Recover the amino acids of this structure.
């Protein structure tokens, strides 16, 4: 089955800096890669996703890149703000069978 | 807006008790999922269902069972709760087809004493 690895497990940046979280997956059939943000005490919420026919997708300060050959994808957050502090999960899915990474706790220091 | 609700935010149970966690979604989604979330382990899939009365084991089904009698409702059952089942339980639902995004409930934090 699919195995998703996520790094780093914790990340601390200064406000205004960029943050990058990386994930690798094992199942070459995976074709959908969402990213979720989970604030303390709240449910995970989708922030951006990418499909295997696309190499990069951007939404304001958030971007995701996908390298299908290498089976890795990354989340990039630019101009970080304190409200970006949360746990971020990557996931890889094939035919609705989704597996999640272990999560990255991002702390943005003001 | 997709709405996924879970019957309880917090539960305290004793070892050996039978525990029911309920999840309801209002978007007519075919697919429903139960995960447990533990620090450093992310979200681990317990069971999932692609249709009414259908269920499939996920990665960690031991000690759990599920029930999907109606499309909108997916129940997780701990037959005999144990302390190692203390965790946060998250339910999710998704639509079949190209839209695979999973929408999560608020979670149930279960403490087994």
């Amino acid at each position: 089955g699919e195995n998703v690895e996520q790094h780093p497990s914790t990340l601390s940046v200064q406000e205004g800096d960029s943050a990058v979280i990386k994930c690798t997956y094992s199942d070459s059939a995976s074709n959908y890669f969402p990213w979720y943000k989970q604030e303390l005490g709240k449910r995970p919420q989708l922030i951006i996703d990418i499909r295997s026919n696309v190499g990069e997708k951007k939404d304001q300060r958030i971007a995701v890149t996908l390298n299908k050959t290498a089976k890795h994808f990354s989340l990039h957050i630019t101009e970080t703000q304190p409200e970006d502090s949360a746990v971020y999960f990557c996931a890889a899915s094939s035919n609705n069978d989704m597996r999640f990474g272990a999560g990255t706790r991002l702390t943005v220091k003001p | 807006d997709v709405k996924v609700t879970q019957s309880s935010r917090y539960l305290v149970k004793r070892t050996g008790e039978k525990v029911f966690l309920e999840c309801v979604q209002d978007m007519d989604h075919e697919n429903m999922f139960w995960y447990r979330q533990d620090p450093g382990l992310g979200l681990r899939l317990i069971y999932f269902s692609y249709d009414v009365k259908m269920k499939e084991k996920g990665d960690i089904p031991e000690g759990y069972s599920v029930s999907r009698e109606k499309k909108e409702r997916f129940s997780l059952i701990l037959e005999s709760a144990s302390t190692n089942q203390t965790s946060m339980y998250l339910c999710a639902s998704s639509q079949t087809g190209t839209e695979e995004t999973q929408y999560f409930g608020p979670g149930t934090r279960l403490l087994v004493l």
In short: The two ends of chain B are 37 Å apart (CA to CA). The CA atoms of residues 17 and 80 of chain B lie 5 Å apart. Chain B touches chain A through 23 residues (CB under 8 Å). The longest strand of chain B covers residues 31-38.
